[in-house]
Write a structure and sequence with these properties.
Blueprint lengths: L2 E5 L4 H12 L3 E6 L2 H13 L4 E5 L5 H15 L4 E4 L14 H29 L3 E6 L12 H21 L4 E8 L8 H4 L2 H9 L9 H11 L11 E4 L13 H16 L2 H25 L4
Parallel strand pairs: 1-2, 1-4, 2-3, 4-5, 5-6, 6-7
Helix pairs in contact: 1-8, 3-4, 4-5
């Protein structure tokens, strides 16, 4: 009978958490930047017999997330659970990452989580009945990955913010924890996981022999917001099938090939020529990544 707000509820991990909470008996306000996705998640919650609602919210916009928290309190009479899940991915090396990609990534993954938690925590304090907050971090919070340094930084920031907030909000009876998913079968990770041989190689690199699924994260989230976890706060909960201790995000061949190509190019090209070649290649890959993101319905 608790009330939850989930950002990015319409797809991937957010949808998995939304449905898991509903199956566990929670009413869920489904927030997403795309109305159709929010509406679809709400229909699924309704089919599970729980109360639900939708909210179109861009987590970068303070007015949107404040209105979201107030909507939950107004329509359900409570706000017990906040899951700050909405996030995006952008790649690039320190030599090539575009400033606008950096800004967009940090605005969604760091500022968006901060604004979401601030709005929901303030509403929880007003209601004076405690609460549970989960911030979705990543395995990338503790594992470096070339070409994903900005994403790694944003998720490490989420992990540390959650630890700080756990200290600040404990006197109000509000717990704050973060979850660090590994490779999860979502639209965001589709390019990394791939299909056929690429997927098989990825799964061989994971000790449990498979990628994760959104419902795996949903089950962990349900435990963290349950009465059983009432004494758990400030924790970072890695859920990656054992991948962190394996030593890589995957087979490693792509990284090795990239590094070898750079070594070979340095032997025949001048510094300016090498940078020009890198910039040209990155431009082509950015265009390809943008097309893939649009095809998967990602921002």
């Amino acid at each position: 009978g608790k009330t939850a707000v989930v950002t990015g509820a319409g797809s991937g991990i957010g949808r998995g958490i939304t449905l898991a909470l509903a199956q566990a008996g929670a009413n869920v306000l489904c927030a997403d930047v795309v109305r159709e996705r929010a509406d679809d998640a709400a229909r699924a919650v309704r089919e599970l017999g729980r109360k639900t609602g939708t909210c179109v919210a861009d987590v970068r916009n303070k007015k949107d997330v404040v209105a979201m928290a107030e909507q939950a309190s107004r329509e359900f009479g409570a706000l017990d659970i906040c899951v700050a899940n909405a996030g995006i991915g952008r790649g690039g090396t320190v030599l090539t990452m575009r400033e606008d990609d950096w800004d967009t990534l940090m605005d969604v993954n760091l500022k968006g989580v901060f604004l979401t938690v601030q709005a929901c925590a303030r509403e929880m304090v007003k209601l004076n009945r405690g609460g549970r907050i989960i911030a979705i971090s990543s395995l990338a919070a503790e594992r470096p990955s070339p070409t994903l340094f900005a994403y790694c930084a944003s998720k490490a920031g989420v992990r540390m913010m959650a630890r700080c907030w756990a200290q600040e909000l404990a006197p109000f009876g509000i717990t704050v924890n973060s979850i660090g998913p590994g490779v999860i079968d979502t639209p965001l990770a589709a390019g990394l996981i791939g299909e056929g041989d690429q997927r098989a190689a990825m799964e061989r690199a994971i000790p449990l022999g498979r990628v994760g699924y959104p419902e795996d994260i949903g089950r962990l989230a349900c435990w963290l917001v349950s009465d059983e976890a009432a004494y758990v706060t400030g924790t970072y909960n890695l859920i990656d099938g054992g991948m962190a201790d394996r030593g890589s995000y995957g087979p490693g061949s792509a990284l090795g090939q990239m590094q070898q190509l750079i070594r070979e190019a340095r032997a025949t090209l001048s510094g300016p020529e090498l940078l020009e070649r890198i910039d040209e290649t990155v431009g082509q890959r950015i265009a390809e990544a943008n097309r893939e993101r649009e095809a998967r319905g990602l921002q």
